[in-house]
Write a structure and sequence with these properties.
Blueprint (H helix, E strand, L loop, with lengths): L1 H6 L2 H9 L2 H14 L4 H25 L3 H8 L1 H34 L14 H50 L14 H12 L7 H16 L4 H30 L10 H16 L4 H35 L6 H20 L3 H27 L12 H24 L1
Helix pairs in contact: 2-7, 2-9, 2-10, 2-12, 3-8, 3-10, 4-9, 4-10, 4-14, 4-15, 5-6, 5-14, 6-7, 6-11, 6-12, 6-13, 6-14, 7-10, 7-11, 7-12, 7-13, 8-14, 8-15, 9-12, 11-12, 12-13, 14-15
C-alpha cells in the first residue's frame, strides 16, 4: 500500500488542483439548489473531459516532454493562443480559489484582524489571504516539486476521509425520501449556473498542461515514470475527483436542500454559512470535520494552482522566444502572487462574481484545449503505440461536440 502511494504523484496533484471551487462551492450549491438533479451534468462532463485530461500524462510519459512542447510542434500560433488564454485567466482563477481558502481559514482558525500592523482598514480575511499565499510560496520555494508531491498526499487522504465521514453522518440524519429525478435548467440564471458548474468539473481543461509538466517533474525525481504508471496514477486522481464531486453534491442535498438560506458573495460570510449549515443539521461535533474537509480542499487547490501556472507560463515563454529564463518560474510565481493580491483587494466583496466569471470562461475555452490535445495525441508527434484507440477517438469526438454544443447554447442566451 505504501509503495503504491509513493509511486503516485501527478495524479494526486491533479486531484488537489481539481477538488476545490468546483467541489466545495459549485457542487455543494448544485446539491442545495437542485438536489441530485444535476448528477447527469456531473457525470457527463467528467466522461467527456476524461480523454483530454488523460492525453496530458499520456503524451508527457510517452515522449518525455510536456504538452507545451507538443503545442509548439503543432505551430507557434497554437502555443501563443494558449499563452494568451492562460494570461487572461490565471489571475482570476488564483484569486477565486485563494478567496475561498482565506474565508475558510478565518472561520476555522479565527479572526486575526489584530495583526493588521496599524492598517485599520484591513480585515481578517485579507490578512489570511496574504498568510496563505506566503505559506504556499515558502513551501514551493524551499521544497519545490518533491515537497509538493509529499504534501498533497497527506492533504488528499485527509480530505477524502473527512468528506466521506461527513457524507455518511449527513445521510444518517436525512429523514426525507430521496429523489433522483434529473433536471435540465430552463431560465438564464440556472443555465449560467450549469455552465459554471461544468466549467470547473472536475477542473478546467488547461490543467491537462499542468499535469503533463508535473509528470515530467515526477520522472526527473524518480527516474522511472512509464506511460503505464502515469495512466494508473492519473486514473486514481480522476476517480477521486469524481467521487468527491458526488460527495459534495450529496452534502449539499442532505443538509441544505429546500432551506431558505442564500449564500453570500463575501468570502468570510460564505465560509461561515457553509460550515454553520452543516453543524446546524449534524451537530456541533461536525464543525471540525467539515472545517478540515473544506479548508484542505481549498488549500490544496491554492498551492497547486500557484505552482502550476508559473511553470506553464515560464515554459511557454521560453518556447515562444527560444530563450532560456533561469529565474522564469520565480518571476512568474511572484507576478501571479502580486496580481492575485491586487485583484483580491480590488474585488474581495465580489467573490461570487469572480468565481462565476472564472468558471464560465473555463468552460467556454474548453473546446480549444480539447481540440488541440486530441490533435496532438493523434499526430505523428506521439509514438504510434500511445495514440488513441478507436474507442478513444469516438469518445474524443463526442466530447468535443458536447463542449462546443453547451458553449454555443450558453452564448446564444447572453
Amino acid at each position: 500500500m505504501l509503495s503504491t502511494l509513493k509511486k503516485l504523484g501527478p495524479g494526486l496533484l491533479f486531484a488537489g488542483a481539481a477538488i476545490g471551487v468546483s467541489h466545495l462551492v459549485q457542487s455543494t450549491r448544485a446539491g442545495a439548489d437542485f438536489g441530485f438533479g444535476l448528477l447527469w451534468a456531473l457525470l457527463l462532463v467528467n466522461l467527456f473531459k476524461y480523454p483530454f485530461f488523460q492525453f496530458g500524462p499520456r503524451y508527457a510519459s510517452a515522449t518525455g516532454e510536456s504538452l507545451l512542447e507538443g503545442y509548439h510542434k503543432l505551430g507557434k500560433g497554437v502555443l501563443a493562443a494558449y499563452f494568451i488564454l492562460s494570461l487572461g485567466t490565471m489571475f482570476t482563477i488564483q484569486t477565486a480559489v485563494t478567496i475561498v481558502s482565506a474565508g475558510l481559514a478565518n472561520s476555522l482558525f479565527g479572526d486575526i484582524s489584530f495583526l493588521n500592523f496599524g492598517f485599520t482598514s484591513i480585515s481578517s480575511v485579507e490578512i489570511w489571504t496574504v498568510i496563505i499565499l506566503f505559506i504556499c510560496l515558502i513551501i514551493l520555494f524551499l521544497g519545490k516539486y518533491s515537497t509538493l508531491d509529499k504534501l498533497i498526499k497527506v492533504i488528499i487522504i485527509t480530505l477524502t476521509i473527512s468528506t466521506l465521514v461527513a457524507v455518511c453522518f449527513a445521510f444518517t440524519e436525512f429523514n426525507k425520501p430521496m429523489s433522483f429525478i434529473q433536471i435540465l435548467p430552463e431560465n438564464t440564471t440556472e443555465i449560467a449556473f450549469l455552465i459554471a458548474f461544468m466549467g470547473w468539473m472536475p477542473a478546467p481543461l488547461d490543467i491537462s498542461v499542468w499535469h503533463s509538466i508535473w509528470a515530467i517533474e515526477k520522472k526527473k525525481d524518480e527516474g522511472t515514470f512509464t506511460p503505464k504508471a502515469a495512466l494508473f496514477d492519473f486514473n486514481i486522481g480522476y476517480a477521486g475527483a469524481i467521487i468527491l464531486g458526488i460527495a459534495f453534491v450529496s452534502l449539499g442535498y442532505f443538509v441544505m436542500y429546500n432551506t431558505d438560506e442564500t449564500f453570500s458573495n463575501k468570502a468570510a460570510v460564505f465560509s461561515n454559512q457553509l460550515i454553520d449549515l452543516y453543524t446546524k443539521s449534524l451537530g456541533n461535533w461536525a464543525y471540525i470535520i467539515i472545517g478540515i474537509a473544506a479548508f484542505t480542499t481549498m488549500f490544496s487547490t491554492t498551492i497547486t494552482t500557484l505552482d502550476a501556472s508559473p511553470r506553464a507560463m515560464s515554459k511557454s515563454l521560453e518556447l515562444l522566444t527560444k530563450k532560456r529564463f533561469k529565474k522564469g518560474y520565480l518571476l512568474w510565481i511572484l507576478i501571479l502572487t502580486f496580481g492575485t493580491l491586487i485583484i483580491y483587494f480590488a474585488y474581495a466583496s465580489e467573490m461570487g462574481k469572480l468565481i462565476k466569471i472564472a468558471t464560465i470562461l473555463s468552460f467556454i475555452t474548453a473546446p480549444f484545449y480539447a481540440i488541440i490535445n486530441y490533435k496532438l495525441i493523434s499526430s505523428k508527434h506521439t509514438p504510434k503505440e500511445w495514440r488513441p484507440t478507436l474507442k478513444f477517438h469516438i469518445l474524443s469526438w463526442l466530447g468535443i461536440i458536447f463542449l462546443i454544443g453547451f458553449s454555443v447554447w450558453y452564448l446564444t442566451l447572453l
